[in-house]
Each structure stands twice: as C-alpha cells, then as structure tokens.
Amino acid sequence: MSFIERPRFSCMLGGALATLTSLPRVIPIIHGAQGCGGQLTNSFAYGGYLGVGYCGGASLPSSNVSEKEIIFGGAEKLRKEILAAYDVMDGDLFVVVTSCMTDLIGDDVEAVISEVERPEYPLIFVDTGGFKGNSYYGYDIVIKSLFEQYIPVTKEKDEKLVNLLGLVPAYDPFFRGDLEEIRRILSLIGVKATTFVTPDQTIENIRNAGKAALNIVLSPVNGIRAAKAAKEKHGIDYIVTDLPIGSNASVKFAIEIAEKLGIDREFAEKALEKEVERYYSYVDRATDVIADTDFQNYAVVVNNATQALPYAQYLDNEIGWLPEYVFITDELREKNKEIIRRHFEELPFEYRPKLVFETDTSKIQQYITQNDPQFLSDTYYEKLEPAFVLGSSIDRKLSQVLNGNFLNISFPAMSRIILNKTYAGFNGGLALLEDLITAQVSGR
Fold first, then answer.
1. In this structure, are 156 and 276 located in the same domain?
2. What span, in angstroms and rounded, lies between the C-alpha atoms of 198 and 24?
3. Burial 279-311 (b: 16+ CB within 10 A, else e)
4. 307 shares its domain with 399
5. Is the dihedral of CA 256, 258, 260, 262 positive or negative?
6. CB-based burial label for 131 (10 Å; 0-12, 13-18, 19+)
7. Which tens digit of pLDDT belongs to each residue from 271-317?
C-alpha cells in the first residue's frame, strides 16, 4: 500500500472546476455528491488564491446525489439540475462534469444532455471522475473538450493569433499574471494571444480559438492532449516550450515563436531591444548591493513539471545562484519523466542541479538531510549554506531545517496573497529578483 503525504494537487474534478470557473461566463454543473464541489473549491480557492470566480464556491450547481441515486441511478436528478441551472444561472456555456461516484454507477450523462440541451444554452459534457487522474489532467481534458465539442471548425486562420496552453488555474498560482506577461511579450513582435483563463477573456475569444495559427504549450506535460486534439480537429499546429522567466529566456521564447510563425528574426530582435535594455537598467540598480553583500545562495526548487526547471534556469543563468536540487512534485508516468529528463540534459546550466521526482513532502526533506554527503559534512565550506528554498507553503519547514530562506512559488500558496503577480517574462524576472532579495533582508 502506497500513499502521498501532503500532495500538491487534487483529483481530476478539482482541476476541471478550477479551469471552468476561470473561463468567462462558463457554468459548471457537477453530477456528484454535495461535498465534492464545496471541498474542492475550498482547496484551490485558498491554496491557489483562485477565489470562486463567476460561478464557483457555494454557487456551483450540483445534482447532489445521495445513497438513493447510488442504488437507483442519478440520471433523473441530473436532468432536473440542468433544467434548474438554465432557469437560475446566466451563462454562455454550461458544462456537465462528473465525480467518482457517478462514474462508478455508470449514469448515461450524454443521454441526459441530448434530452435537455437547447440551442440558446450551449451544453457540453466532460468526464472528470476523480479517480481517473489528478488536477492537471482535469485542466487538460476541459480544454481538450472545448476544442472537440464547442469551438467551431473554420478554414479562416489568423497568421498572427496563437493560443496559450499548459498553465493550470490555481495549481500554477501565478497563472493569471504569467499569461498576461507572456501575451504582452508576444505583442511586442506583433502576435495576438488567447489565454482562455485571464479576466479580460470573453466567450468570443474562446470561440475564435480555432482560428489560431499556433498553440503554444508552456509545459512538457500539461496541455499537450488539448493541443493534439486541436491539431486533429482544427488543423492548428503546436509547439511545446518552457515558461520563460527573465530576460534571456524571454528573448529566446519570443524568437522561437517568431520563427515558428514565419516572422522575420531581425524584426523580432529589434522589437525586443528596448525591453531588454529596460530590464537590465533595473537589474543594474541592484547589482552593487547583491554583489557587495554576497546574496548568492544554494537553491532548492520544489515545484511541478511545468515550472520547476524554468525557475532553476533563471536562478542559474540570470542571477548566478547555485540550484542544488530540483524536485518535481507531480505524479507522472514514467514516459513523462523520461521526456523531462531528456529535456533537463539539453538545458544549459553553469551549475547543474540534481533532478528528483518526488511527490511525498517528507521524502523531499529526507532526500537532502539523510542521503546528501554535502549536507551532512562538518566542513563549513562544503555545507549546503547559505540555502534558499523556493517551493510551496508546506516547504517552509524544509527551509527551517536547512537554516535557509524561503519563497512560496508553488501550490499550495497559503503564505501570501496572489492577484495578478507574475514571475514570468521580463516583468516577472524583475519581480522574482525583488522577492528573493527581500526574503533575505526583510528581517533587518
């Protein structure tokens, strides 16, 4: 028997609900027990500072199945709930999602939908039984279903329109600010971006996603199913790339997208010059204090598969820290781990960290304190100090064990408030540098 102590994700339904409540005027209808929606929204509303959105929290429509429906079936109760949602909720798209128990009893949800759907109330179904995967898979299957069931197929393509995929609402706590910053960077080279889940998006943005020339997947594992579905049904090519953090990564990202879209490289480089100059004008202001006070640290990065390596790259390439460990906390299949390992080996590091896949919180600490001769050494200059942990709020204890500093960058993020904060791109790189140094001087 195996278990995960303090996991950093929820079930598949949790990821689906976090995504749906971030989409513009989309109404999720849960076919499940009363507690499913409430407990899951509590998890990501506070653990990822997502909040309840347009229709979340206590407002979530639910069939609220009980023991009776488990025995005799819950299809009739779902039918009544959908009709009630039509009457009460004001939305542009209704999405039925399922829970573990309704998947297990085998309710024919698609038959219910075919009976009650109306032209004025678009309605689709996403099978999200929690035991089928975790929250990241829940995100992927929702976006995939939009491309398959809702976004119209069109031959009309916009050569300068892209869709951004791979950042999961709440479970990537900075997703809103990160997506907005990446869209801003793309606009510098004349590219428009649909983000799906930022506050400015409308249902028309989603409907027009089929016109995109390219899907940009900002994760080695999340969003790829959706991108493949979009390629198969809408003929949209896709590229898998890293989340850019800092100037170097942002320039590399923008040039990569420009070349993929057939935009002149010289034009793109010229368009980015002022942004790079601006970035380093701010960094230069801090270099004296950083160098003179010796703020270089050994770093431990604890994050998901989307964000862990980009943060480590930033620490190594942008500010000259020594990323000693990168812990990836997702529950991944071996083929996905191998994809990440190969990508890790291809990335340029001046100081190459140890890459570890570990979902269990206590084992992350044990890995460092019990197995690492560097940490166990009695020689001052060989010890892992000064140390800095970049992880979730449950990794604060690890920073205390290492006698180091701490910054909450991953889910759950309960030790800070996150609105439109970003650590991506040029602006995010500056913000991250500020926060890393602030964490070290805030007690003075």
1. yes
2. 8
3. beeebeeeeeebeeeebebbbbbbbbbbbbbbb
4. yes
5. negative
6. exposed
7. 999 999 999 999 998 888 777 777 889 999 999 999 999 999 999 99
If asked whether residues 342 and 370 sit together in one domain, one would say yes
Give the span between the Cα atoms of 404 and 164, in whole angstroms.
Answer: 35
Model pLDDT for residues 70-106, shown as the tens digit of each residue = 777 788 999 999 999 999 999 999 999 999 888 878 8
Q: What is the CATH number of the domain that holds 232?
A: 3.40.50.1980
Question: Would residue 443 count as lying in a domain?
Answer: no
The secondary element (H helix, E strand) that includes residue 425 is helix 425-441
237 in the same domain as 314: no
Spatial distance between the Cα atoms of 76 and 116, rounded to a whole number of angstroms: 11
Q: What is the dihedral of CA 365, 367, 368, 371, to 10 degrees?
A: 140
Domain assignment present for 38: yes
Q: Is residue 110 exposed (0-12), middle (13-18) or buried (19+ Cβ within 10 Å)?
A: exposed
Same domain, 239 and 327: no
Q: What is the DSSP string of 141-206?
A: HHHHHIIIIISPP-S--EEEEEEEE-PPBTTBTTHHHHHHHHHHHHHHTT-EEE-SSSTT--HHHH
Give the span between the Cα atoms of 391 and 311, in whole angstroms.
Answer: 10
* Edge-to-edge strands, sheet with 93-98: 26-31, 93-98, 123-126
Predicted confidence at residue 1, as pLDDT, reads: 44
> Number of structural domains, the chain?
3
Amino acid at 158: D
Which domain, by its residues, includes 341?
A: 295-413
